[in-house]
Amino acid sequence: MTVKTHQFVDCSPSRAEIERASRTGQPHTLTRCTLVGCDLSDLDLTGWRFEGCNLSQASFKSATLEDVTFKGCRASGVLLQGANFSEGTIDGGDFSNANLRGATLTHSKFRNCKMTGADLRETHSLGIELEDVLLALAMLPKFSFRKMTLKRVDFTDADMSQCDFRDAVFEDCSLRDTHLIDSRFENADLRGADLGGIRLSDLKRFKGAILSKQQAAILLGQLGLQVH
To answer: How many other β-carbons are positioned within 10 Å of the β-carbon of residue 220?
Structure first.
């Protein structure tokens, strides 16, 4: 049976309107809607879609966002703290300085999006997918990337202390000037990662990781040694 999808198009719905729609239990699609600063906290929006919407400073705090899709949205400073974003998708758009602290991100997907300065502390992230994501200056301490394949993810200057990168694979990623205190890299394949800013004194953090000859040569070059 096909589930009917209801639409909001080119409008600025209020919380009351969205709450009333959520009570139907049916998924809705919002297209090019403006929800700047709107309080949508605690609502059940399971299966909803937001396409090309302006969600800057909107609050989805503690909302149920299972299987929700944000496609091409402007959402700087959006609040997703404590939300259940399981199996959700962010595809394109700008989520800079988004607050996802304590959110459930199980099997969620992040693609082609900007998340500069995003706060992902204390998130539950089993099975998360990251591809073409800008996470520069983001806060990701204690985040688990174990056995993940990271594709074109930029972690420049991010706080990634105590992260678990064991058995992870980096493909065209950046760890330049990333804060990696007490992170684990056993069996991580770093050959596709930019390690700019890494010093020999930092190498103990990469114990057990796989490096390319070029990466090793750059690091040894700091000691005045040459690798041929």
So the answer is: 13
Rg (CA), the chain: 20
DSSP 35: -
What residue numbers bound the domain in which 20 lies? 1-135
Domain end residue (candidates: 89, 110, 135): 135
Q: Are residues 150 and 126 in the same domain?
A: no
Contact in structure between 110 and 92 (CB atoms under 8 Å) = no
**Tens of pLDDT, residues 130-169:** 999 999 999 999 999 999 999 999 999 999 999 999 999 9
Q: Check residue 221 and give its pLDDT.
A: 67
Same domain, yes or no, for 129 and 151? no
Q: Do 20 and 119 belong together in one domain?
A: yes
- Residue 226, SS3 per DSSP: coil
- Last residue of a domain, which of 77, 112, 135? 135
Distance (Å) of CA 108 to CA 72, 126, 176, 194: 16, 9, 25, 25
Say which residues have a Cβ less than 8 Å from residue 138's Cβ, sequence separation at least 6: 115, 116, 117, 118, 119, 120, 155, 158, 159
Domain match, 165 and 118 both: no
Instruction: Identify the three-state secondary structure at position 150.
Output: strand
Please give the pLDDT value at position 120. Answer: 97
Q: What is the pTM of this model?
A: 0.90
Cα dihedral 8, 14, 20, 21 in deg (nearest 10): 20
